[in-house]
Amino acid sequence: MNNDEIIHHKIATLSGHDTDQLTVSQKQQINDNPALQKELAFIETLWQPEAVSLDEPTEQLDAKFYKMLASAQASPSRPSQRRSWGQWVQKVLWGAPAFQVCALVVVFLIGFNLNTRSSDESKLALLNEQVSSLNTMMAITMLQQTSASEQLAGVAYSQEADLKHERLSSLLLQTLSNENSAPVKLAIINTLSRAPISHIEKPLIEIATNQSSVLVQIELIRLLIAKGSNQSIETLMHQLSQETLHPDVNQLLQAPINKSANAA
Amino acid sequence: MTDECRLMLLVQQGQLNKLAPLYEAYKVKLYNYFLHRGHSQSASEDLVQETFTKILAYRNSFTGEGTFKSWLYGIARNTAIDHYRKNRVSDQHVCLEDNDHQNPALLGQVLSEQHEQQRRDSIFSQSLQDIPAQDSEIILLSRVHQLKYEQIADLLGCNINTLKSKMQTAIRRLQVKFEELNGKQHGDEL
Fold first, then answer.
1. In this predicted model, what pLDDT tens digit does every residue of A77-121 receive, in sequence order?
2. Considering only residues 44 to 73 of chain B, which have any Cβ-Cβ distance to chain A shorter than 8 Å?
3. What is the ipTM of this complex?
4. Predicted TM-score (pTM) of this structure
5. What whole-number distance in Å separates Cα of residue A138 and Cα of residue A92?
């Protein structure tokens, strides 16, 4: 084994490749060569765990990723997503008796109405309505699960559902308030940003004020500033002014305050 | 077949939520992969996001024959190359300006026994930035991202013997640069 081969052997060993033990003569070859010893020592140092440190990305990266994932899950145009939808239906039909009954009623109503109404337009409208109802029920069922991935699926269904549905909006708010998983909360905020929020502004202000995750709090404030009424924004600002806020939240709040000051 | 391959095949079948554990497993390493290629912090985050967007978009191209890791790094590498082509006025090396502690002249200021390790880390980082990009990429893919020789050779489109030779050259260049910076710093202290 020449010097280069000994170096290759060292790198391969440190990289976790299967290597043979060095023979006595090869070890002697290293001992007799100070330059080779120095090179091997450097390689060993390089492979020490602390030699190359890893930086952490910001929370914004998570927010962007889970937003993208929730959007992809909600996209109805993907064929693979349709297969997933079918899998969820199958899973839920076997798992939740209440949903089983509801789904059967919905399917029965779709079939009954399609066969009794004459106009194509009314058939289409009815079909859309029934599909929305089914999505609403799927969302409700999934949001009641304990696993974050199933809740994320519930949020994805809620994007295609009627967000004014009392039970669904109540569940979304409850999950937003009590769930530990920030990705689930961020996905819910993303869903809420696609629909009117006037009927839930008040609870959203409470949740934003008491929110423990800075990132979720920032996104909630952004949502309320973007879509909330002036009165709600004032209430939010007032309530937040009573709290000790994270510097990032304070920084965010400066923007609308300055904006309104400039406008005045 | 590894767990990662199974998860990716489930993503392919429509269970998109299975991408989340893969993202969690690789986000930090991928972020550092782009950082070490010289991109700024914000550009590196964008590139991680773009890589996972591509994974979703091209999920059907994953065959499950190779490892998920090598497929992922292949996409990441192409994403970085595309980014470079689109942004000829590159954001590269902004991170060097951002991080004053990586400047060898300033490194001496923080020198003390308790900062010795930090100093060495900084010199390593600086050395990796100063050697040619293809050299640092080979070292990091092996050392930080723990890709096997076969996987790196596949990514770079060369055979294993060529890769071994490139690896050795890269480490020698790194060592020369490390000693140069280390010596310069000791000179500054004196």
1. 444 444 445 555 555 555 455 555 555 666 666 666 666 555 666
2. 44-45, 48-49, 52-53, 56, 59
3. 0.73
4. 0.50
5. 8
